[in-house]
Amino acid sequence: MEKVLFQFDTDPQPSAFDRVVAVDSGVHHIFSYGGITPGNVVPLVHGCIFTRGSKDLKNTAIFIGGSDVTAGEAVLAEVQKHLIPAYGLTVSVMLDSNGANTTAAAAVRAAAKHLDLANSKTLILGGTGPVGQRVAHLLAKLGGHVRIGSRQKNRAEEVAKKIQDAVPGAKVEAVATATSSDAPAALAGRDLVFACGAAGVVLLPKKIRTGCGTLKVAIDLNGVPPAGIEGIELMDKGAVRDGVICYGALGVGGNKMKIHKAAIAELFARNDAIMDVEAIYAIAEK
Fold first, then answer.
1. 202 and 176 in contact (C-beta within 8 Å)?
2. Residue 51 in 3-state DSSP?
3. Which of 46, 76, 99, 255 has a CA 20 to 30 Å removed from the CA of 274?
4. What is the architecture of the domain spanning 4-95?
């Protein structure tokens, strides 16, 4: 039976990128819908689960995307409400709005090549954004100590509380990174730093980075110059700069694409998987 992927995109125009990746992942048919909200998704969910017998539903899956991660999370929650597991009427669902889950998984896996993340001490710059929150969640789940940096400390505190609620025992701390004087204190004692902020903004100047004697790994996820971590190049993939192992956005991007494709393929291995950031990271670990 042919594999059918329903693409639920919260943007008006469904992502061409996500459609191409689905094709390259072995999907036979992609039914793409834009402008998806919790209010209009229910008939589409019913179309997914009522058209094939329960034994064949592993050949149907849902991908939730779009540029707004919060909107994607709301759609995922609504989709789950209308699956009927008691009768086997479920399909696997993957959330990757704005590529946040697959990017975070790839970035954390890059760090895991060089550090014991259960004992790591991390600073996440731009930690309140979609990718930053997911990197923080994964690192907290793995047992490390995580500082969530933001220009608005109250926003970082909100994210820290959210992670503590989701990950019992999480070691997370909110720090302000609004001024140049904040950065050295935020970075002090850290062995790992991520830049997950808005494109075109230098979050960590080179003079501050090189002044941190404990730093071992730096990962910049900003794909638009200038780099979020000054001195890191887009193509860096384990490059050593000033004694620190560095990854740029494109250096992480290759593995992100592999994870994305593997996750799409995994959707069709069963009919009841819900693939958010932890499930996608588990695939990345393979």
1. no
2. coil
3. 255
4. 3-Layer(aba) Sandwich (3.40)
- For the cut 80, the answer to whether the pLDDT of residue 180 exceeds it is no
CA 12, 68, 7, 76 dihedral sign is: negative
Residues 235-281: pLDDT tens digits?
A: 999 999 999 999 999 999 999 999 999 999 999 999 999 999 999 99
- Tell me the domain boundaries of the chain: 4-95, 103-253
Q: Are strands 237-241 and 244-247 parallel, antiparallel or unpaired?
A: antiparallel
Instruction: Read off the pLDDT of residues 16-28 as tens digits, 9 standing for 90 and up.
Output: 999 999 999 999 9
Cα torsion for 187, 136, 10, 5, to the nearest 10°? 130
Class of CATH domain 103-253: alpha beta
Alpha-carbon torsion (122, 274, 99, 177), positive or negative: negative
Confidence of residue 181 (pLDDT cuts 50, 70, 90): confident
Q: For residues 98-130, b (16+ Cβ closer than 10 Å) or e, as one string?
A: bbbbbbbbbbbbbbbeebebeebbbbbbbbbbb
Question: Is residue 129 a contact partner of residue 103, using CB atoms and an 8 Å limit?
Answer: no
The Cα angle at residue 275 between residues 271 and 280, in degrees rounded to 5 = 125
What's the CA gap between 127 and 160, in Å, rounded? 9
Q: What pTM did the predictor assign? A: 0.94
